[in-house]
Amino acid sequence: MKILLVALLGLGLLQTAQAQAQTPSEAQTQAQTKAQTQTQTPSQVVDAFHQAMRANQPDRVLELLAPEAVVYEQGFAELSRDDWAGKQLGPAIAFAPHTRRKVLRRESRELGDVAWVLTLTRTTVSLADQPLVLVGAETAILRLQPQGWRIVHLHWSAHEEPAEAAPAATP
C-alpha cells in the first residue's frame, strides 16, 4: 500500500512539474495578450468612437470607453463612463449625424500600456440653415486593457472659427 501511495504521489508531483514547465510565464502571457488585443491602434479606437457616435451605436461608443473614463468638455466634467452616458451620450449621438468632422492634425504616442491621441479638427454644423464652423481640440488618453485599447480620458474644447480663417464662399 505504501508503495502505491508513494507511486501515486510521485506521479502527481511529476504531472504538476510538467504542467508548470508548459505554463507560460506571466510576462509571456501579458505579451501574448497585448499582441492579440492590439488589432486597433489608439488612433483607430478614437476614430471608431466617433464613427459609432455618427452611426447611432451607443453600445459601441460605451464599449470603447473604459468604465473609469473621465470626460472634460467645454469646462464641464463627467467623472465616469456611466455619468457621461447618462447626461451626454443621447444628445451627442443625436447631434453627431448633423456634423462634418475633418481631422486637421493628429499626433499619437504610446508608452507601455498608455497612449494619447491629440487631434485638431474642423467641424461644420448646420443649425436652422445657418452653418456653424467649429475649430476643435481633442485629447484622448487610452489604456491597453484585456479587450484592447480603451479610452480612459477625453478632453474636448472648441470655438467658432474666425470669419477671416473660413474658406471663401464660391459664387
Question: Helices and strands, in N-to-C order?
Answer: HHHHEEHEEEE
Mean pLDDT rating: 81
- Describe the strand arrangement of the main beta sheet, using strand numbers: 2-1-6-5-4-3
What gyration radius follows from the Cα positions, in whole Å? 25 Å
Q: Span from first to last CA?
A: 102 Å
What's the overall geometry?
A: globular
Range of helix content: 25-40%
Largest sheet: 6 strands, mixed
Number of strands: 6
**Relative strand content:** 35-45%
The unreliable regions are 1-22
Structural class: alpha+beta
| Number of discrete helical segments | 5
Report on this model:
This protein has 171 residues and is of the alpha+beta class. 40% of the residues lie in helices and 40% in strands. The protein contains five helices and six strands. It has helices at residues 2-22, 26-37, 42-54, 58-64, 81-95, and strands at residues 65-73, 76-78, 99-111, 114-127, 130-145, 148-160. It has a six-stranded mixed beta sheet with strand order 2-1-6-5-4-3. Strand 5 and strand 6 (148-160) form a beta hairpin. The termini are far apart.
Layout: helices, strands, pairs:
Layout: H1 2-22, H2 26-37, H3 42-54, H4 58-64, E1 65-73, E2 76-78, H5 81-95, E3 99-111, E4 114-127, E5 130-145, E6 148-160
Parallel strand pairs: 1-6
Antiparallel strand pairs: 1-2, 3-4, 4-5, 5-6
Helix pairs in contact: 3-4
